[in-house]
Amino acid sequence: MVMACRVVNKRRHMGLQQLSSFAETGRTFLGPLKSSKFIIDEECHESVLISSTVRLLESLDLTSAVGQLLNEAVQAQNNTYRTGISTLLFLVGAWSSAVEECLHLGVPISIIVSVMSEGLNFCSEEVVSLHVPVHNIFDCMDSTKTFSQLETFSVSLCPFLQVPSDTDLIEEEHALKDVASQTLTISNLSGRPLKSSELFKPQTKVEADKNTSRTLKNSLLADTCCRQSILIHSRHFNRTDNTEEVSKPDGFQEHVTATHKTYRCNDLVELAVGLSHGDHSSMKLVEEAVQLQYQNACVQQGNCTKPFMFDISRIFTCCLPGLPETSSCVCPGYITVVSVSNNPVIKELQNQPVRIVLIEGDLTENYRHLGFNKSANIKTVLDSMQLQEDSSEELWANHVLQVLIQFKVNLVLVQGNVSERLIEKCINSKRLVIGSVNGSVMQAFAEAAGAVQVAYITQVNEDCVGNGVCVTFWRSSPLDVVDRNNRIAILLKTEGINLVTAVLTNPVTAQMQTKEDRFWTCAYRLYYALKEEKVFLGGGAVEFLCLSCLQILAEQSLKKENHACSGWLHNTSSWLASSLAIYRPTVLKFLANGWQKYLSTLLYNTANYSSEFEASTYIQHHLQNATDSGFPSSYILNEYSKLNSRIFNSDISNKLEQIPRVYDVVTPKIEAWRRALDLVLLVLQTDSEIIAGHGHTQINSQELTDFLFL
């Protein structure tokens, strides 16, 4: 990959510098308006267009120890959640720089680890106030509301970023409203105070702000929401004992209230639009797939009384490059591509129910299941000239064909590879064999068609054969959907099968991978939202709340100093306690700077600010107002009540309930934060090449620098 190099200063922490360098390459992928990159192979000079962090890291040289750790963290996030990867990578870079600054100021490593971990834990608890309950989505489905009705709005209730109606049709000159104030309006809509009476101002201020917010009562949906604990886990390293013993300061003890009012979301279309983050075309397909699963579940049950769970393992994609994007759709059943040579077979089978056999492994002459031990010291001797003329594979293929004829099987799905010779024989006998089929597809056909999966064709008997499968072309004119690899799309389905396929098309082959990645990102966002039954109010509000809380916490720590730290630590030395009191405000400040950079980059990537400095100044203005008020949540509600401000367009200011909100998934976002910080602290503690101080000034400058090629 062609990439600029970065100078690495050997007198600074090299591991952290490498993390910052890697993270710098993906900053344009942050936010809904992603800038694509062309990756060029220096050897073969081929190029590919990418717009995701995962695809970017696949093209970088990650052979170093730090690179492998970064790749492991990114892959873990991607394999589990399929979202939050860009956030993870950016925060790795931002917090690596923050830790470097702390080291430069002489902050002990143990203090950095302890305070940063404490700060992130505090943020994770505070953002619970931004949870939006997601309940009874399928009990309140409105068949009259469509996805397109909501996506036409270009302004949301609470985004830092203005979500476009379609990322492919964004104009550079689209106006960004006063969205920082707008985001502030949602940072604590639950009404739960951020925490302590010592941290904030007197209660009379809260009451005054609550009175101001009553004007919005009719436009808010209320629900009771009890505080839930946050799942804390990471696969990178265990925190030190010092961190575990750090508790919240006395100034942050939680107030206990009977009930908390908050937003709620009970509409699937609204939830899907809020989680689309501007990619409405992909999320629309996901929403349609969920609708199909729900309808199929209702048909199978005879009613919809049982709770419905979105099963993402039964959603599949079929990519058809070269076709217009308008051909993208969602269909019940299993859509896949086969060679054009199967065209006569499809025509023969499409008007009749066929019998099906499912093979778990490969369908080849040499395939043996896992655990099979080949007998040793056995030599096969051919006695017949006829056997010598026919290869062993030919004999095997003839035997397989005889088995299929015996049980009147016309369709074979194979989870592994298939012998090319067998495929040819099956085509001549009007039988269709499809290889590399996903295990969930096999299971779905086994359930719906009554088939039993077998490892070898010799195990097939009447009880293993399924019935009633329909084989047809995806489109009535199959030649219209032949891709560039000379393959055609076919549809396999049977009554009651729980399978949905999203057909993804794009006239530009280089963009096909990006389109599929975007679809799965949207699918997993909606999946985790429905699974957890809660989402965050999004658009940057969560990050702004973290920034506000850390800012106030740092200022409060600076004022309290030694008096404050006496209540936080137990069984620690006086040196550690005094060091913590001295350095804690500094570390919290640099941790907060990571959120500041995150939000600044989000705004800058919208192309509405000439520089990140300008975007940062804009955020700092509202941050100062929020912290000066003493009640960030009250400041938020005051800003929200200013309907005549630049936050909303005048033509929709009276239609608050119709403006789609922006949502974020909860656990994937929190876990992206944790993985990012865990990785930074892991590199900090394990890298042995830490050079601090300003000594050895006579060292040759060439020996102090090196180049890191990406």
TrEMBL record:
The keyword Nucleotide-binding does not apply. GO terms for cellular component: cilium. Component of the chaperonin-containing T-complex (TRiC), a molecular chaperone complex that assists the folding of proteins upon ATP hydrolysis. As part of the TRiC complex may play a role in the assembly of BBSome, a complex involved in ciliogenesis regulating transports vesicles to the cilia. Involved in adipogenic differentiation. The lineage of its organism: Eukaryota, Metazoa, Chordata, Craniata, Vertebrata. One of its GO terms (biological process) is photoreceptor cell maintenance. One of its GO terms (molecular function) is ATP binding. Signal peptide: none annotated. It holds the Pfam family Cpn60_TCP1. Gene3D superfamilies: GroEL (3.50.7.10), GroEL-like equatorial domain (1.10.560.10). It comes from Pan troglodytes. Keywords: Cell projection, Cilium. It is found in: Cell projection, Cilium. InterPro entries: BBS12, Cpn60/GroEL/TCP-1, GroEL-like_apical_dom_sf, GROEL-like_equatorial_sf. This is Chaperonin-containing T-complex member BBS12. Belongs to the TCP-1 chaperonin family. BBS12 subfamily. Component of the chaperonin-containing T-complex (TRiC), a heterooligomeric complex of about 850 to 900 kDa that forms two stacked rings, 12 to 16 nm in diameter. Interacts with MKKS. It comes from the Eukaryota.
